[in-house]
Amino acid sequence: MFGDCVLDPGRRELTRGSQVIAVGPQVFDLLIYLVRNRERVVSKDDVLDAVWSGRTVSESTLSSHINAVRKAIGDSGEEQRLIRTVARKGFRFVGGVSEVQSSDGDFLQNCFERRPMKRGCKGARRRSAAGQSGRKRPTRAPDGDTAHPLLAR
Fold first, then answer.
1. CA pseudo-torsion sign 78, 81, 87, 91
2. CB–CB of 62/44 below 8 Å?
3. What does pTM read for this prediction?
4. Which of 29, 46, 120, 139 is the most buried (most CB within 10 A)?
5. 83-120 residue pLDDT tens
6. What structural domains and CATH numbers belong to the chain?
């Protein structure tokens, strides 16, 4: 069960239940990137370009950040209920996501739910019609000036 997690990119906050989960900035950016690109498998190169701006990063650093994201959202490398490792391809966020606007209208929040996926399933999962029309929503960085590059779809 994972219906009690909220990711608020505008506030750069991850909560599980009523508790704020502390994560480092790159771990948070990695989670945002995986959620925003959940319709496809993202390669290691895609992740390195998006989160580390193409800087040279070791395999162990990438693995430790993926593990930190999994731990923060209550997943593990063994279960892979929410973040699936696709051998020789990359990673994919497979949890259900519903997007809601916060009461002040400025921040986008994502609520995750566990969504089962068949092992060995190929191709991207289609979005459900309920609340996920594929429309781009305007996003703001925490300072309110410009859109954060990881939040853009």
1. negative
2. yes
3. 0.68
4. 29
5. 999 999 999 999 888 877 655 554 444 444 444 444 44
6. 5-113 (1.10.10.10)
